[in-house]
From TrEMBL:
This is N-acetylglucosamine-6-phosphate deacetylase. One of its GO terms (molecular function) is metal ion binding. The active site is at 259 (proton donor/acceptor). It comes from Cupriavidus nantongensis. GO terms for biological process: N-acetylglucosamine catabolic process. InterPro entries: Amidohydro-rel, GlcNAc_6-P_deAcase, Metal-dep_hydrolase_composite, Metal_Hydrolase. Residues 41-356 form the Amidohydrolase-related domain. Keywords: Carbohydrate metabolism, Hydrolase, Metal-binding. Its cofactor is a divalent metal cation. Binds 1 divalent metal cation per subunit.
Amino acid sequence: MKGNILTPAGWILGEIHAGADGRIARIEGVPVAPGGNDAPYLLPGFVDLLNHGGGGMDFMDGEAAVPVVLRAHVRFGTTSLLATTMTAPHAALLPAVQALGRACAARPAGAARLLGVHLEGPYISPGKLGAQPDAPAIATPQDLAQYLDAAPLKVVTLAPELPGHLDIIRQLAARGVRVQLGHTLGTYEDAVAALEAGASGFTHLFNAMTPLRHRAPGMVAAALAHAEFAELIPDLLHVHPGAIRAALRAIPRLYAVTDATAAAGMPDGTYHLGSQTVYKAHGSVRLADGTLAGSVLTMDQALRNFVAIGLDLADASRRVSLYPAQYLGLADRGMLAEGCWADVVELDRALSVRRVHVEGECCVANA
C-alpha cells in the first residue's frame, strides 16, 4: 500500500507493510505535504458507531443480515462498526442481540469487522421517539444483564430523565459500557447529572433531544459545554453546516456516525428500519409522514462533507476514524501505526474510495 500516508505524526509519502497477522508491521517513507504530488491518500479505516444496516438489510433482521451489511459498508471505506438496534419489546430485542453476539465471533471474508452492539433503544423518551417504534421502556438491571450476556454491548443510548436511569448509567459505566444521552426530553441539569454518573457521549447530537435555548439550555447545551466526545450525522440534512461548525468549536473529539439504514448503498425505494417502513428518495430516508428515519450516509461521504465545510483532510479523517476508536477505548484501530490493525482506505485525489483493506485483507479494489 503506497501513497500519502496519514500517520499519528503527520503525512509521509511511502508504503505500509502488513504482516501475516493482519496488523501493520512497519511504515516506511519521508515527510510530505500531500498536496504537492498526485499519489493517492492512505487513511485509517473508517469506524462507524451508529449503523442500522445497508445493502437492503437491517441488523434487526438476524444473523444472516450481518455479512450483507458489513460488505455493503466496506465498499465505502468502513472497516469496523457497531451493529445498532432499534426499539422493540424485550422478547423481540433479545433474540436480535443474541444473533448479533454470535456474528461478532468472526469477520466474514471481504467485509468490515463487527465490533459489537449499540443498543439505541428501547430506553428512550416516548416524547422523543424520532423514527424509533413506539415501544419505549424503562431500563432494568435484569434485562440489561441478558443483553450483556448475549453480545459485546459497547454503547447504550438512553434518556437520563426516566426513573432509575441514573443508577443504570452507573452500573453500565462500571461494566465499561459507553452510555450516551439521546432520544430524550431531559433538561440541561438532567444531562449534567448523567455525565456525573458516568455517561460519556451524546447520540446523534442535535437530533431527538432538547435544543439549546438561552433560558432552557437543554441537552444540546450540555453537550457543547461539557462533552469531550459526541457523535453527529454529517449528511448535511440532519444538521445544518453552521450547527456542525459550532459543535466542532465546542466538542474536542466530535466524530461522525452514519445512522445508516437498509437503504444505504441501494436505489430509491421502500425499505425497513426495524419494524418501521421507510422510503428512500432525494438522498434521504423517511417515514411516511416525512420524518427523517436514519440516513443513507456512508462514511466516505461523511469525510467529504467535513472537508466541504472547511476541515482539512487530516482533521476530517480523525473524525471518521481516530475519535470513534478512542471513544471505544480501541488503541489498535483508527490510526496507521506499527502494531495497529491494517485497516486502510485508499482515496484518489477527489476523495473517492479506490481500495479498502480490513485487517490486511484487500476487500475493495476499484478501478
